[in-house]
């Protein structure tokens, strides 16, 4: 696999960024959409049916972002807990809006059967700037560990702490986009003073299992549900998706907790990260959102059936 010779426009190749490079990176980030108009307004519309709470806030002066979670109204400690997270990477749009679509269109189907806890937009600063990192050039989805320097990650872990050991399901909604290869992975390599090695972007939906606690039947239930909405990513010529070996159709695996990934923050027996491909000519934004919602429904259906 050849490295790319064109250097990233910030920093010196082979040298990790310091404060000056991070400041230059930050100066290039511009607001491109509104968290208040596109996310908070939708959450407000759900207040009549769900409990809504502010579980923290980001003060990235002059910008201030309340962090919002939605819960089942009639929380019952005797019912299993389902955690749904989206927007850990703010640019991954269908993660945010797929979670909100599930709440609006499907959540009431599970009333009295599960307790829902949903954090639909974990990284609102990055949502507005259509970026992977937070204000401090930190990837929240490598930062879910004790003493995290990512405020987004630390706040979510505090929210989830009371159900960390009792949750049945955690589904973390993501996207793999063309900008992963054109911007975000090159930026990561530059930030850390490493060479960038292209991996290629998979065309289609896939999921990430936990290599330390694999649940292959659970993951396949999601694949079967989502393929009714959008296409499943095939393995490449090396038998991989995005640089990782394919362990089953549409499934790769990472050590979720070891890598500090959001999907590893609970002890839930059923955990997964979804990955939608929004840049495919074969899909629309509506399909991407629907695919995320379908994955959530399939996860809950499987968990309820197999936890009896």
Automatic annotation (TrEMBL):
Molecular function GO labels: hydrolase activity, acting on ester bonds; metallocarboxypeptidase activity; zinc ion binding
Superkingdom assignment: Bacteria
Span of the signal peptide: none
Domain Peptidase M14 positions: 31-307
Pfam families per the UniProt record, alphabetical: AstE_AspA_cat
GO biological process, any: proteolysis
Keyword Cytoplasm listed: no
Residue ranges of the TM segments: none
Cofactor: Zn(2+)
Alphabetized InterPro entries for the sequence: AstE_AspA_cat (IPR055438), Peptidase_M14 (IPR000834)
KW Cytoplasm (keyword) present: no
Keywords: Hydrolase, Metal-binding, Zinc
Similarity-based family: Belongs to the peptidase M14 family.
Protein name per UniProt: Peptidase M14 domain-containing protein
Organism: Marinobacter manganoxydans MnI7-9
